[in-house]
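forwarding from the other thread:

> can someone predict this with 3-methyl-2-oxobutanoic acid?

sure thing
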Amino acid sequence: MIEQKITPSLLYKYKADKRKITMLTAYDFYFARLIDECGCDLILVGDSLGTVIMGYETTVPVSVEEVIHHSRAVKKGVSRALVVGDMPFLSYQVSKEEAMRNAGRLLKEGGVNAVKLEGGAETADTVKYLTSNGVAVMGHVGLMPQRVDQLGGYKTQGKTPNSRQRVMDDALAIAESGVFALVLEGVEAGLASEITGRVKVPTIGIGAGPGCDGQVLVIYDLLNMAHSPLPKFVKIFADAGKVIKEGVNDYLSEVRNGSFPPAK
Ligand code: KIV
């Protein structure tokens, strides 16, 4: 399936045409190529690399260097999808200038087409600064995993009137700040649909119900290759974890019983 390259403006057209947007994470060349060949629209080099690749407990320790390193590999495997690099914790909060420098590094050294950053209304000025300086930015509101300790866990946002208002205010502020798309993570499904109807930018949901303009999952989760318990909203689409274990176990037994390699 050879289709035109994905651009931010094409995503607006998808929203207008009610064509669902697909997004997955990838962290290396091989996965990125497979995912791109399947026709996925957006590939995110997520800071989830901290938990699924590096084995950290949260995404907080992830560095700009780590995202650049994985982005380089991903970018080499992709020809159609739009590649987005995640801005890790502390790479954009201190000042707009520092945010610009780090976003620029992801673009120049990592080769990504756009960056994503977590943050509500308080982050809108930083997003404006980046976009007015030529950086395509994807927003991320609702459950922001970089703030997991402040939030007290990975909990759905927008379940109480106060939380609902905060998520709505954040979404509207970020949507107005110049982002080309907005991730809604762990947002109560009705609220996510309402936001999707109110903002012009395409919304991409994760744990936010079916009413968003698109969906994203962590590739290791949907393939059952994650070590920690999976979030409730994840569906396992293929049990690659099981297939890998079977292959490794077969190899180990054949080496141990002498049947591999064969004599000839
Ligand atoms: O880091 C990540 O993988 C993400 C997605 C889950 C949206 O931010």
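The longest helix spans residues 240-256. thats all i got for now
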